[in-house]
C-alpha cells in the first residue's frame, strides 16, 4: 500500500534539490506569494537552523539538520521592495565558511 505523504513531508527539502526560488504574482491587483515562498517560510521556521548572517544582514545561512547541507536565504531582486521574493540555495561548506565567517 502506498502512503500519501503528509504535508510536512511535502514541504521538506528533497536530497535532489539545490534551489527553491519564490515568486510574487499579481492577482486581482494584489501581490501574492507563490507556493515556493510559503514553503521557504515554513522551512526556515520549522526545519532549518540559522547558523550565520553575512555582513549586510540580508543573506542568512541555514543548515538542514536532516542531511547537514547548508542553505542560503537570498533576495535576488534588489530593485524590488524588500529585495524581492526569497530564494533558498544550497551552498558548499567552503562557500558558507568564506561568506559567513562561520566555523561551518
**Stretches with pLDDT under 50, minimum 5 residues:** 1-8
Give the SSE order as H and E letters.
HEEEHEEEEH
Residue fraction in strands: 25-35%
* Number of separate domains: 1
- Terminal CA distance reads 41 Å
Short account of what is shown:
By secondary structure, this protein is α+β, with helices and mostly antiparallel strands. It has helices at residues 7-11, 35-46, 93-100; strands at 19-21, 24-27, 30-33, 49-53, 60-63, 70-75, 86-91. The longest helix is centred in the middle third of the chain and has 12 residues, at 35-46.
List the helices and strands and how they pair.
Elements: H1 7-11, E1 19-21, E2 24-27, E3 30-33, H2 35-46, E4 49-53, E5 60-63, E6 70-75, E7 86-91, H3 93-100
Name the descriptors:
disordered N terminus, five-stranded antiparallel β-sheet, 104 residues, two-stranded antiparallel sheet, 24% helix, alpha+beta, single chain, globular
Structure description:
There is one protein chain. Residues 1-8 have low confidence and may be disordered. The relative contact order is 0.19. Strand 4 and strand 5 (60-63) form a beta hairpin. This protein has one domain (18-100). It has helices at residues 7-11, 35-46, 93-100, and strands spanning 19-21, 24-27, 30-33, 49-53, 60-63, 70-75, 86-91. The longest helix has 12 residues, at 35-46. It is an alpha+beta fold and 104 residues long. Strands 1-7-6-5-4 form a five-stranded antiparallel sheet. A two-stranded antiparallel sheet has the order 2-3.
Amino acid at each position: 500500500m502506498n502512503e500519501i505523504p503528509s504535508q510536512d513531508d511535502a514541504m521538506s527539502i528533497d536530497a535532489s534539490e539545490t534551489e527553491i526560488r519564490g515568486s510574487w504574482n499579481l492577482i486581482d491587483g494584489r501581490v501574492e506569494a507563490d507556493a515556493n515562498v510559503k514553503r521557504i517560510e515554513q522551512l526556515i521556521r520549522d526545519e532549518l537552523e540559522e547558523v550565520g548572517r553575512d555582513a549586510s544582514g540580508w543573506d542568512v545561512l541555514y543548515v538542514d539538520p536532516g542531511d547537514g547541507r547548508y542553505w542560503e536565504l537570498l533576495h535576488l531582486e534588489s530593485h524590488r521592495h524588500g529585495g524581492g521574493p526569497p530564494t533558498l540555495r544550497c551552498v558548499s561548506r567552503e562557500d558558507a565558511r568564506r561568506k559567513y565567517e562561520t566555523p561551518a
